[in-house]
Structures are given as structure tokens and as C-alpha cells.
């Protein structure tokens, strides 16, 4: 009788334990399956948002993979915790491993972090003319570790992303219009009004220069050897250098035609002869 009673107790305990752990196992599987589905959905959404923002394909793939891996780590830890496994030690191990890898790859990870910032804030895009990281050129590529520039003389410069994000970034292509500034000097003996009127006519004749805002010409300085004019106009960003160089050439040619001098620094040297018998 006692043996039958003990067997009945053992069977009941086993059934109870089986039900308890079975429910935990089912719960863990449900957490894993649903969590994996959510992780995939979030990753897919992030990828679509980045692709819609015209982010580089390499960065889209990298960030998507990184987000998915991090989400799956959270899901697996939650599933193990539901089974009753103490995940504190796992978190500590992952933290220690992450710290070791971070210290070993500190420079590389800083570039990856900078790439993420470039993605989020988008101070420039491929095709923009940018000055950053001590380099000025057209952005050809933004990858996980570096930004690749093509300079005006057709050199390829690879700049680490940490250097790009760590300093000033000047994006010359961000706006559709730019202001062109010049300083022109004439001699003190030249006709001031004629020179000003000539500059205004040169600027008004160039169709690339906007009429609104109107070109601005004014006397800016009475220098040591010249009277200086400042001239400012607005143009499309793509016309900047063409207008800049063409105008300098036109000013020199037309000033020569009208007899307006463009002075250069001069120095008068006086020699005193010693007096005889001194």
C-alpha cells in the first residue's frame, strides 16, 4: 500500500513538474518566436526608412544587421529568463566581452559610431562639395569606417569618419544659391564714379548673376596705394566658380579699355649722397 502511495505521489509530482516546465518552455518559445518576428519587423522598418532617406547601401546593411543582432540578444535573454535561467551571469559575460572588444577596437568603433552620426544627422550626402577632416572635395562614398572624397585635381582622399565628424563641416552644396565676393582696387587719380558704374555694368551684363537680390558695389576702403571697391552678387551654387573667374577677367580687360588703373604696392626709395668734405 505504501509503495503504491509513493508511486502515486511521484507520478503526480512528475506530472505537475512536467506541466510547469512545459508551460515555461512554451512561454519561452512564444517569446522567442514573437520576439524574432518583432525584431525582423523593426529591422525591416529601419532599413526602409534609411533607404527612403537615400543612405548608402553599405551603411543600410550594416546598421540593419547590427540592430537585428542586438534585438535578438534581448529576445534570447528574455526567453532564458522565462525558463528560470539566471541571466545575470550572461549579461555580465556579454558586458565584459563587449568592453574587451571595445577597448581593442576603440579607433575602429569610433569610426563606426561616427558613421552612425553621419547617417542620423546627414550633414552632407554623396555628390556634395564638402570641406571636412582637413579635405575639400566632392563626396564619392560614405562607408562604415571612412568618407571618400574626390578633390578638384582628381585625387581620391580617404578620411576616417571620426575625423570628419570631429571637426567643422562646410557643405558648399547644401544651399541652391551662394554669394560671390570680390575686392577691386583703383588708383587715387582714377575716376571713382566711372569705376563704380563700370563694375555695376559688368555685373548686370552677366545672366548668371541674380537680379534679386541685386548686385552690390560700394567703396570699402581707402588703402595705402588704392581705393578699394567691394562687389557682392548672388548666383546658383553650380555657377559660383565660373562667375568668380570670368568677372575678374572682364574687370581687368574693361578697366584697361577705359583707362582705369589697377594699382599694385609701390615703394619710393630716396638715396642721400654724402656731402663732399664730410
Question: Describe it for me?
Answer:
The protein has 278 residues and is an alpha+beta fold. The protein has 3 domains: 2-104, Helix Hairpins, CATH 1.10.287; 123-171, SH3 type barrels; 177-257, Alpha-Beta Plaits (2-Layer Sandwich), CATH 3.30.70.100. Helix content is 53%, strand content 18%. It is built from 7 helices and 8 strands; from the N terminus they run ααααββββαββαββα. It has helices at 2-52, 57-82, 88-104, 106-121, 161-165, 192-205, 240-257, and strands spanning 129-132, 135-142, 146-150, 156-160, 170-171, 177-186, 216-222, 227-236. The chain has a 5-stranded antiparallel β-sheet with strand order 4-3-2-1-5. Strands 6-8-7 form a 3-stranded antiparallel β-sheet, covered by helices on one side. A hairpin with a 3-residue loop joins β2 (135-142) and β3 (146-150). α1 runs antiparallel to α2 (57-82) and α6 crosses α7 (240-257). It is elongated, with a radius of gyration of 36 Å. The model has no long low-confidence stretch (mean pLDDT 81).
Q: Can you tag this structure with a few keywords?
A:
SH3 type barrels; alpha+beta; 3 domains; 7 helices; single chain; Alpha-Beta Plaits; 278 residues; 8 strands; five-stranded antiparallel sheet; Helix Hairpins
Concise synopsis of the structure shown:
The protein has 7 helices and 8 strands; from the N terminus they run ααααββββαββαββα. With 278 residues, the protein is of the alpha+beta class.
Amino acid at each position: 500500500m505504501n509503495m503504491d502511495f509513493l508511486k502515486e505521489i511521484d507520478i503526480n509530482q512528475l506530472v505537475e513538474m512536467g506541466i510547469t516546465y512545459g508551460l515555461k518552455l512554451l512561454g519561452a518559445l512564444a517569446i522567442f518566436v514573437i520576439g524574432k518576428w518583432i525584431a525582423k519587423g523593426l529591422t525591416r522598418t529601419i532599413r526602409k526608412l534609411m533607404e527612403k532617406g537615400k543612405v548608402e547601401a553599405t551603411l543600410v546593411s550594416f546598421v540593419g544587421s547590427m540592430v537585428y543582432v542586438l534585438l535578438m540578444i534581448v529576445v534570447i535573454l528574455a526567453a532564458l529568463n522565462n525558463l528560470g535561467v539566471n541571466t545575470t551571469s550572461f549579461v555580465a559575460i556579454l558586458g565584459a566581452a563587449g568592453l574587451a572588444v571595445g577597448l581593442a577596437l576603440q579607433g575602429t568603433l569610433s569610426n563606426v559610431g561616427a558613421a552612425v552620426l553621419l547617417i542620423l544627422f546627414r550633414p552632407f550626402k554623396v555628390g556634395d562639395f564638402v570641406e571636412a577632416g582637413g579635405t575639400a572635395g566632392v563626396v564619392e562614398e560614405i562607408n562604415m569606417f571612412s568618407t571618400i572624397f574626390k578633390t578638384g585635381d582628381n585625387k581620391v582622399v580617404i578620411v576616417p569618419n571620426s575625423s570628419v565628424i570631429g571637426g567643422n563641416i562646410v557643405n558648399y552644396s547644401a544651399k541652391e544659391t551662394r554669394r560671390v565676393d570680390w575686392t577691386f582696387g583703383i588708383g587715387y587719380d582714377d575716376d571713382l564714379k566711372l569705376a563704380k558704374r563700370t563694375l555695376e555694368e559688368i555685373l548686370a551684363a552677366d545672366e548668371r548673376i541674380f537680379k534679386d537680390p541685386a548686385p552690390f558695389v560700394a567703396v570699402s576702403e581707402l588703402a595705402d596705394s588704392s581705393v578699394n571697391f567691394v562687389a557682392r552678387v548672388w548666383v546658383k551654387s553650380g555657377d559660383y566658380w565660373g562667375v568668380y573667374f570670368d568677372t575678374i577677367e572682364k574687370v581687368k580687360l574693361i578697366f584697361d579699355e577705359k583707362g582705369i588703373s589697377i594699382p599694385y604696392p609701390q615703394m619710393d626709395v630716396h638715396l642721400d649722397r654724402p656731402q663732399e668734405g664730410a
